[in-house]
Amino acid sequence: MVDMPDRSLPVPKYQMKQNETTDVKRARLLYQSRKRGMLENGLLLSTFASEYLNKFSEKQLDLYDNLINQVSNDWDIYYYATNIKEIPAEYDNEIMDLLKKHVKNEKKEERFKQPDLQFN
After folding, report:
1. Angle 37-77-43 (CA atoms, 0-180°, nearest 5)?
2. What is the pLDDT of residue 9?
3. Could you give the C-alpha distances from 63 to 22, 53, 58, 95, 114, in angstroms and in order?
4. What is the DSSP string of 50-113?
5. CB 32: neighbour CB atoms within 10 A?
6. How many other β-carbons are positioned within 10 Å of the β-carbon of residue 86?
7. Residues 94, 67, 40, 43: is their CA dihedral positive or negative?
8. Can you say whether residue 42 is alpha, beta or left, with left for phi > 0 and alpha for psi between -120 and 50 degrees?
9. Which of 22, 78, 108, 110 is 20 to 30 A from 7 via CA?
10. In this predicted model, which residue has the larger pLDDT, 9 or 119?
11. Per-residue pLDDT tens over the stretch 32-63
């Protein structure tokens, strides 16, 4: 009989990057926004990042970094942004407000593919 690993182990807490320049942080977050593990979030977050990351302050970049890297379940990010699940206090901030507005797509933009890996 083969022993299976304990799947109840907690996911390690995300450690913020230290001594990272703002330009490097923006580039990392843009790339990470494209690679969230499910197509829905890849499209949602990559188009959001392409539109907003270049305008974000350092504080806003940290809030976004926490959102996309601390939430371990990709569906949770999607459910928070689409108002299906209640947003936990640590993610209920100005970045989530912008993301929820982005999800509404009031301009009816086509978002069928991820934007190029560059800022607007």
Report:
1. 55
2. 63
3. 14, 11, 9, 7, 22
4. HHHGGG--HHHHHHHHHHHHH---HHHHHHHHTTSSPPPGGG-SHHHHHHHHHHH-TT----SS
5. 16
6. 9
7. positive
8. alpha
9. 78
10. 9
11. 999 877 888 889 999 999 999 999 999 999 99
Torsion angles phi and psi, residue 21, rounded to 5: -70, 160
Asked whether the beta carbons of 85 and 79 are under 8 A apart, the reply is yes
DSSP 8-state secondary structure symbol assigned to residue 7: T
Give the Å distances, CA to CA, from 16 to 29, 68, 112: 12, 12, 31
List b or e across 65-77, with b for residues whose CB sees 16 or more CB atoms inside 10 angstroms. bbbbbebeebebb
Terminal CA-CA length for the chain: 56
Asked if 80 contacts 91 with a C-beta cutoff of 8 angstroms, the reply is yes
